[in-house]
Task: structure prediction
Amino acid sequence: MIYHGLFGMNFESDGIRFAPVVPAPFTQLSLADVRYRDARLRITVRGSGTGIREFKLDGQKQRQPFFAAANRGEHLIEIEMK
Result:
């Protein structure tokens, strides 16, 4: 429920697509040690709402809110909501 609801993690065959839905009372959400295939993820969502202002993977801004299944090792995902 938390993965799909608040964090909006949609598991697809080629990776994870993010579409968080964060209620207004929340200002920051975090998940640590999320295991996905050969990767371990730390995920932070800042702000509230349903729109993504910025999606970063390991500090680098990404065009799409997506984590590829081919990624391995430890990764940090940062999502800023509008």
User: Anything to note?
Assistant: Residues 16 and 67 are 5 Å apart (CA to CA).
